[in-house]
From TrEMBL:
GO terms for molecular function: 5-methyltetrahydropteroyltriglutamate-homocysteine S-methyltransferase activity; zinc ion binding. It comes from Arthrobacter jiangjiafuii. GO terms for biological process: methionine biosynthetic process. CDD domains: CIMS_C_terminal_like. InterPro entries: Met_Synth_C/arc, UROD/MetE-like_sf. Residues 179-382 form the Cobalamin-independent methionine synthase MetE C-terminal/archaeal domain. This is Cobalamin-independent methionine synthase II family protein. The lineage of its organism: Bacteria, Bacillati, Actinomycetota, Actinomycetes, Micrococcales.
């Protein structure tokens, strides 16, 4: 067999440059108090930063690059929420109110009627309250670029210009680096709906309203010939945000509504241009109350995507690679397991990366695996460490390919 390649990618967010962080911090807010104004100077800085970033990804061995989510504002080096808060910038019908999903009071669920509680009332956060509240513990939650608004009227998409800029910047980067394609991340309806709602009559109605809004992003990205990555930690992460712990059956019903809404938003979009990213929350906490992947993997595979990205490289979820011994990967689908992690400052050895890739290749076939990262590296790791991890990812993929396709040993 002739030598072939294991493709490499990442989960989206990459460290912003100091100049871009400073420029975001200097931006002024519109009258609504949460929409960041854009200037020609900022746009030029953003374009140049994305072009440089795509070239850097290529040099490190990443074959399917993204724009690093640079168009999603991050005004602090530690920011775990830019993947979500960007949506506020692109949606009408939102206002700042007293409601904050992070700090609002606890909500209690009961059998047959489960509801999300506040982020501060997550079961892992309350179990390790002393650690989460201790600035010396190593658990950082960071600082978001904008406040969390509430839906006070019908929501509609207003991000056409900002998204067009993201698309143009990535395409410019791809052209300069002579790479054929790349991806842009977009929020899922289920994750987007975890803000306040003072307008829609039900949770399901609110989720489907977000589906209509976000479909415009999905369509624009794929119509431009790029891959859209749907960021949806809520599918797994909501489990920890329900207090007390629900039954798996109740949670699956709760989750199915979110999957149905996402599939509704994806209708007619080619699956080969859709990548779905599920994670258990990227903050550096214990994660002892994460749901087992085996309990939701069939739901994830029910999403109309061609590629499924998930955590497989950290101490809480690496063991779950074995579920693919029993779960059949549908024809034409591809796994994008995390083989380096956002959850540790230790840079994975390329040989370990190769071994992780080979595990999955041995179960689903070498052609059905793309090597990725557990979650976004930007806002979670020091830039030097983050890019060293991408380099290790690229080198590990080369080692794995040399063994999988030629049988040679390193």
């Amino acid at each position: 067999m002739t030598f072939d390649q294991i493709s490499t990618t990442h989960a989206g967010s990459l460290p912003r440059t100091p100049e871009l962080i400073s420029a975001n911090a200097a931006r002024t807010f519109a009258d609504d108090g949460f929409t960041l104004e854009r200037t020609p100077e900022f746009e030029l800085l953003l374009t140049d930063a994305v072009i440089d970033l795509v070239q850097r990804q290529k040099s490190l061995g990443i074959t399917i690059p993204g724009d690093g989510e640079y168009g999603k504002a991050m005004s602090s080096p530690v920011d775990y929420g830019a993947w979500w808060t960007y949506s506020f910038q692109r949606t009408a019908g939102l206002e700042l109110t007293d409601f904050n999903p992070i700090t609002t009071g606890p909500v209690r669920s009961e059998a047959g009627n489960i509801r999300l509680t506040s982020f501060a009332d997550r079961r892992d956060w309350t179990r390790f309250a002393a650690a989460y509240s201790d600035p010396e513990s190593g658990i950082q939650l960071g600082r978001n670029a904008t406040a969390f608004p509430t839906a006070t009227g019908p929501i509609t998409y207003t991000g056409h210009d900002a998204l067009a800029t993201d698309i143009a910047n990535l395409k410019a980067g791809l052209a300069a680096a002579d790479l054929p394609t790349g991806f842009i991340t977009a929020l899922s309806p289920g994750s987007a709906s975890r803000i306040g709602n003072d307008y829609y009559k039900s949770e399901e109605e609110f989720i489907y309203a977000w589906a209509d809004v976000l479909r415009e992003e999905y369509k624009a990205i794929t119509d431009a010939g790029l891959t859209v990555q749907i960021d949806d930690p809520s599918i797994a992460e909501n489990w920890d945000q329900i207090n007390p712990e629900p039954s798996v059956e109740d949670y699956r019903r709760f989750t199915q509504i979110r999957i149905d809404a996402l599939n509704y938003a994806l209708r007619g979009i080619p699956q080969e241009q859709v990548r779905f990213h599920v994670c258990w929350g990227s903050w550096h906490g214990p994660h002892t109350t994460d749901i087992e992947f085996a309990n939701i993997v069939d739901l994830v595979l029910g999403i109309n995507a061609g590629f499924y990205a998930f955590e497989a490289g950290n101490a809480r979820h690496e063991h779950e690679w074995t579920i693919w011994r029993d779960v059949a990967l549908p024809e034409g689908k591809v796994l994008v397991p995390g083989v380096v992690s956002h959850a540790t400052n230790v840079v994975e050895h390329p040989e370990l990366v190769a071994q992780r890739i080979e595990r999955f290749a041995g179960l689903v076939g070498s052609g059905n695996v793309i090597a990725g990262t557990d979650c976004g590296l930007g806002g979670r790791l020091h830039p030097d460490i983050a890019f060293a991890k991408l380099e290790s990812l690229g080198r590990g993929a080369e080692i794995a390919a040399s063994r999988l396709f030629t049988g040679s040993r390193h």
